[in-house]
Design goal:
Number of helices: 6
Largest sheet: 3 strands, mixed
Radius of gyration: 23 Å
Strand order of the largest sheet: 3-1-6
CATH architecture of the largest domain: Alpha Horseshoe
Number of domains: 2
């Protein structure tokens, strides 16, 4: 009798495990749906900090992202000045389903921004644009870079094309140019 019960419990165990994993999956998908609704509500109100937080929560769930998730996430990243995340999210959206608006946005970003790696151990080294950009999203990209330099002493990302100074060093940023790598830890 014990053997029969043991064998019966073994035959039921995989089903119980499958049911439990299905339950977790259903719960995760329900949470993803809730977050997507919240993402869109924040976006409708132009509450981009809330969009970014919600986007990161959705990303952390590990569920497959949808094109709309990436596009809303790109708008949120643009609002905080994280141009590298804008590019990465647009590319992810393009990989799911290319469209002309996303192509235009990505093309503009690639033509108007360049890659930089700035490092400094001193907090007094300021990043300044010789000619500050007029567009708010480009201004925000520079502000974001300054904040990262202040917090971490390092910024790796995208900046609008132009001439900059970082501490005593002047450098160029532009599409198609090599990464501007300025390490002020080596400058006296």
């Amino acid at each position: 009798m014990r053997t029969l019960l043991f064998l019966l419990s073994l035959s039921l165990a995989p089903q119980a495990v499958a049911d439990e994993s299905k339950k977790v999956s259903e719960e995760t998908m329900a949470e993803a749906k809730r977050l997507r609704i919240q993402l869109e509500k924040h976006a409708e109100r132009n509450a981009w900090a809330g969009v970014e937080r919600t986007y990161l929560e959705l990303e952390d769930l590990g569920v497959p992202m949808e094109k709309q998730d990436y596009l809303i996430g790109a708008q949120a990243a643009r609002s905080i000045g994280e141009a590298l995340q804008v590019r990465d999210r647009l590319i992810a959206a393009m990989n799911l389903n290319p469209d002309m608006n996303t192509v235009r946005w990505l093309t503009e970003l690639q033509q108007e921004y360049g890659t930089v790696l700035l490092t400094s151990k001193k907090k007094g080294n300021k990043l300044e644009a010789k000619v500050p950009p007029f567009q708010p999203d480009r201004q925000q990209a520079i502000t974001y870079a300054r904040e990262q330099l202040e917090k971490k002493g390092r910024f790796e990302g995208l900046l609008p094309a132009g001439t900059y100074t970082f501490g005593p060093v002047e450098f160029q940023v532009g599409a198609g140019l090599d990464t501007a790598h300025i390490d002020l830890r080596k400058v006296k």
